């Protein structure tokens, strides 16, 4: 009864403030259970309304918060205003491009350790420490160089093939039943073919001169890289022919009699040239045969895929991979030898 009488003596403004405070607290209680949870808006409204009440009225109300709680809210607000974001502890993360490059160098060079890779990175403009390279390799699970070196036969033979070149002669019977000969060289490492000459009569002097022309050609096979020359025992491969290659430090290896597989790579090219070109054309003479074999050798070097080269042509071994095809890719065709051979290329 006395509480109701006291309400009659109070002003309407004080009553409105109390009502707003109690409504806010009721909203908090309805929203949270079992412990009230105040949002930033709740704290701001309660703090503002409590300032409008007198100390006697604040103490008479049943509040969910105490003055100490309000002060804590203010202290947190001040701390949040003047707190700046600090850098995360430790070193910054390594660039993903650097990580990918380190793993690529390790994958493509199984004999390189982390210090050798570090030196290569410095030459490429990456300013990193050797310990960074070591850490990247360790996190990727890459073994040290002596443990991941490739000792397989395929790797050994591929390394040996880089300095080997073979020579052989392809013969073709013309439409008039005259035999014409083609002297060619083929590199074992790249499978690249070099047409040395075409003639109706192979002599020792002619073969020797074609060998000299091959080594002097600026855009042809490099003389410095030849370590071994494989040839058969034909009479036109004389000591003068061998001397052309021994003069540059190469060793001449004649195949055994009756063992053509010792020169298998050259024999394989002879078979491919016959099946894909000369056996499907009537050769009229020496000039015609020169045009045919030169065109086929160009197709062999520039476009024809080879399994030993990862289905890449000899001239494109060191070039980037072609772009991946999609539904919008367009393929065009180029004809060689009058449409006898087709070459396909992807265009944008």
UniProtKB/TrEMBL annotation:
GO molecular-function term, one example from the UniProt record: nucleic acid binding
Pfam families to which the protein is assigned, alphabetical: rve_3
Biological process, per Gene Ontology: DNA integration
UniProt region (Disordered), positions on chain: 299-329
The Integrase catalytic domain, residue ranges: 142-321
Domain of life: Bacteria
InterPro entries the UniProt entry points to: Integrase_cat-core (IPR001584), RNaseH-like_sf (IPR012337), RNaseH_sf (IPR036397)
UniProt-recorded name of the protein: Transposase InsO family protein
UniProt source species: Streptomyces olivoverticillatus
């Amino acid at each position: 009864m006395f509480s109701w009488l006291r309400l009659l003596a109070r002003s309407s403004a004080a009553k409105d403030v109390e009502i707003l405070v109690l409504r806010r607290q009721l909203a908090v209680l309805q929203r949270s259970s079992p412990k009230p949870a105040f949002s930033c808006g709740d704290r701001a409204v309660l703090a503002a309304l409590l300032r409008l009440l007198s100390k006697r009225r604040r103490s008479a109300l049943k509040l969910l918060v105490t003055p100490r709680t309000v002060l804590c809210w203010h202290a947190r607000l001040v701390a949040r205003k003047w707190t700046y974001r600090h850098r995360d502890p430790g070193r910054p993360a390594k660039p993903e491009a650097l990580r990918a490059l380190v793993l690529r160098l390790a994958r493509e060079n199984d004999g390189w350790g982390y210090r050798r890779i570090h030196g290569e990175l410095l030459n490429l403009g990456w300013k990193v420490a050797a310990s960074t390279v070591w850490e990247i390799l360790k996190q990727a699970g890459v073994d040290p160089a002596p443990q991941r070196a490739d000792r397989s036969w395929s790797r050994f033979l591929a390394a040996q093939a880089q300095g080997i070149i073979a020579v052989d002669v392809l013969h073709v019977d013309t439409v008039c039943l005259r035999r014409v000969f083609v002297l060619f060289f083929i590199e074992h490492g790249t499978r690249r073919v070099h047409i040395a000459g075409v003639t109706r009569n192979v002599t020792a002097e002619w073969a020797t001169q074609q060998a000299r022309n091959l080594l002097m050609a600026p855009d042809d096979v490099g003389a410095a890289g030849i370590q071994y020359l494989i040839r058969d025992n034909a009479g036109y491969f004389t000591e003068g022919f061998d001397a052309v290659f021994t003069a540059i430090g190469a060793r001449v290896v004649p195949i055994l009699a009756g063992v053509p597989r010792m020169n298998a790579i050259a024999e394989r090219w002879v078979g491919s040239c016959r099946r894909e070109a000369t056996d499907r054309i009537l050769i009229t003479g020496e000039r015609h045969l020169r045009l045919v074999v030169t065109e086929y050798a160009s197709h062999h070097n520039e476009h024809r895929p080879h399994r030993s080269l990862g289905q890449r042509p000899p001239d494109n071994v060191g070039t980037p991979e072609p772009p991946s095809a999609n539904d919008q890719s367009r393929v065009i065709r180029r004809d060689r030898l009058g449409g006898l051979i087709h070459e396909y290329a992807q265009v944008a």
